């Protein structure tokens, strides 16, 4: 009997910004009520049916974004990605321009020598 592969592989689910923010708020509220951080992420994740590590990552990133802990904020990371992409595009354009200049320069030399 063939094995159902879909059961072995984790499903990838995209969570909306609102879902992530709600989970972070719930973790922070629970931490404030209990006065501890132990088990709060797991508790909220199980309650919402989300992955524990996903919720933990969202809380850590929210702490950075809100200035509670040091690190690269979401806005800074997005800006860095945009700059890296722009840099790649500019390098590509530069390479095209160099090749064109070389081609047309060689063409002018050929015409000049005639």
Query: Which blocks of ≥5 consecutive residues have pLDDT under 50?
Result: none
Number of helices: 4
Oligomer: single chain
Write the H/E string, N to C: HHHH
Task: Look at the structure and name the CATH superfamily of the largest domain.
Answer: Winged helix-like DNA-binding domain superfamily/Winged helix DNA-binding domain
3D shape: rod-shaped
Per DSSP, what share of the residues sits in E-state strands of 2 or more residues? under 5%
Strand segment tally:
0
Overall structural class, as computed from helix and strand content, comes to: mainly alpha
Mean pLDDT over the residues:
89
CATH architecture of the largest domain: Orthogonal Bundle
- How far do the termini sit from each other? 79 Å
Query: What is the C-alpha radius of gyration, as a whole number of Å?
Result: 26 Å
CATH topology value of the largest domain = Arc Repressor Mutant, subunit A
Name of the top-level CATH class of the largest domain: Mainly Alpha
Instruction: Sketch the major β-sheet.
Output: none
- Measured as a percent range, the helix fraction is over 70%
Region (Disordered): 1-20
InterPro entries: Homeodomain-like_sf, Transposase_8, WH-like_DNA-bd_sf
Protein name: Transposase
Topology (elements, then pairings):
Elements: H1 17-34, H2 40-48, H3 52-65, H4 74-113
Helix pairs in contact: 1-2, 1-3, 2-3
């Amino acid at each position: 009997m063939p094995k159902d592969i879909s059961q072995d592989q984790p499903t990838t689910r995209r969570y909306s910004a609102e879902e992530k923010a709600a989970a972070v708020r719930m973790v922070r509220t629970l931490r404030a009520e209990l006065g501890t951080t132990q088990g709060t992420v797991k508790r909220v994740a199980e309650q919402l049916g989300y992955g524990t590590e996903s919720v933990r990552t969202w809380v850590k990133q929210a702490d950075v974004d809100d200035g509670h802990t040091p690190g690269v904020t979401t806005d800074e990371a997005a800006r860095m990605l945009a700059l890296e992409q722009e840099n790649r595009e500019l390098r590509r354009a530069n390479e095209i321009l160099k090749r064109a200049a070389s081609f047309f320069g060689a063409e002018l030399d050929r015409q000049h020598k005639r």
